Amino acid sequence: MKNKFYPFLILCLFVLFGCCHSQRREVLYQVSTIQALSAGDYDGQACLCNLRSHGDFGIGTFQGLDGEMVALDGVFYQVKADGRPYPVAQASGIPFAQITFFDADKTFVIDDELSYADLTRYLDKLLPSKNVFYAVKVSGMFKYVKIRSVAKQSQPYPKLDQALKEQKVFEFYDIRGTMVGWRSPQYSEKIGVAGYHMHFISEDKLKGGHVLDLKTGEVKAGLDRTTGFYLSLPDNPEFLELDLETVAEGMDAQKI
Predict the structure, then answer these.
(1) CA contacts within 13 A on the Cβ side of 81
(2) Average pLDDT over residues 176-181
(3) CATH top-level class for 3-255?
(4) Residue 4, SS3?
(5) CA–CA separation, 145 vs 205, rounded Å?
(6) Which of 90, 137, 202, 214: CA 20 to 30 A from 241?
(7) Which pLDDT value is given to residue 59?
């Protein structure tokens, strides 16, 4: 008699797994806060092996603020101060990251020449709501990109605004590549970058960095509406002893 229930049980397990899997893919998994990073907490406790289980797409940085993270199609790259992306198999620590599994809910082609500010305004008009998170992917030909990366910092760590004074800036013209990043709601400014926070990697995987400005050629944009949010806070003494209430609010995404 009990054999009659096996197909039903198997069906239930598939439905349950499917629901959990779908919910897990619609989650922004974040390591630490942008305020902590701004205050100079560059000692990460998260490992890359853990991030891989939470997503295949996103941005962040590495131990000691050692460059920019770009996660694209399941491959994690570290863009060092020389502006070159290096595939990362392991990392000593991740002080800040925002990761998800990218499944575009909406895609469209942009063939107008748009600056970075124009592009963000254009994308904002297409959002069903500005009160949730969106993973943003823009791929294709860029007439111009201005990007930066930062060299690894030594202890005692300077605050982020001081570290960025030594940033390396690179400019490229007529380059194919992909912008990877997030559009976050305004209310999240104390834990993340409100608005757009984007990194870039060239199609040949030889150039990359944090996006400062651009002009689009013909590109394809994808938006992944992400309603789940999980914040993993550090448990190291440096984070626990930070006075985050004194960190300036309303940080400019172009300076992070």
Answers:
(1) 13
(2) 98
(3) alpha beta
(4) helix
(5) 15
(6) 90
(7) 98
